[in-house]
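Worked problem 6 (solution included).
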Amino acid sequence: MPTVAIITDNDFDKVTGVTTTLKAVLRHAPSDLRIRVYTAADLAVDQPDYCAMASWGVGLPWYPEMRIYWPHVQRLRRMLAADGAQVLHITTPGPMCLAARWLWRRTHMPMIGSYHTHLGDYVTTYSGSGALGRGLETYMRWLYSPCRTVLVPSAATRTRLEMGGYPTHQLQVWSRGVETSCFQPAARSAVLRESWGVGDRRPAILYAGRLSSEKGLALMGPIQQALLRHGIAHRFVFVGDGPMRPALEAMCPDAVFLGSLSPAGVAQAMASADAFVFPSATDSLGNVVLEAQACGLPVLVTDQGGPQEHMVHGSTGWVCPAGDAAAFTDRLAALLSDASLRRSMGHAAVTYATSRSWPVALAPLYDAWRDAATDAGRARPRAAGATA
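Solution. The predicted structure is:
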């Protein structure tokens, strides 16, 4: 049975798209693969499918709440050897996956990569330096260069990486799924809606994700002001946390801020809202867009990045020009003023999301691992433009 070692810088205490995806990978693991996730964290965890090494960590300069950890490389090497790892899979550009690349050069295990986040955009946004952002993108291209396959979450991401110098043959689209047993309209709570002070005459507009500037959240203030000028009652509800929360609280003083929630809590909040807005122009996927649709919400996304590929424009929601507050306002005004439109789009959203199950979405990943495992005995994996 092939043994796959997934290396990540995101421990499972973090609530991110990467951890959501990796937990689904473990939950739906096929019987012919042995999969274990390796990471570093404040506290050690040793489970059959998940290992966190206790390590020293530091908060990112632009986002101190998000910590990265320096791994014990030789300990990781011993663990992989003891577990009989045959395939390496890297997911993030931090110290853990840098250590995995170092181990690849010494073990010659075939390596797969998955690209999740346009971190160069984030660095540019927070630092104000395009050079730093481009430098990180160059480093990431080098990090992933030994991978026989780099799995990307959307066609938009594949095109962007091709333009950034990744070999076309190295890139493969690997979409995402949604846990419809958790994210479903039945999670709707009348009690929660009452606590928010919303109803048919005052619908709830929900956002879920990191509260940070790269998510396009600067639009929320202008959108709210425009809706109020048009006399359209509403209330914003924010799920998640991050460095932009104080600014959002000032921009939207009437909004509800729920902070970070468990998946079940997110599902309940989504199902209890009336519309979902995701104004990010930097997301490679935006899995929350699928989750919101599974809960019966019409969704509004931008025309940049991956989220637009995970909804149906005009049926389950609308695609709006990135950064265009007026376009978002117009679409929201139509939804908030017409309960029947919200219901019809919500029904279409559930139907669409139900077709996006995790087992189907994960098949390309598992197949990539099986193919790589056939090369486990070779001296070196097939590398796409690999450099030392």
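Discussion: The chain has two domains: 3-177+357-373, 185-354.
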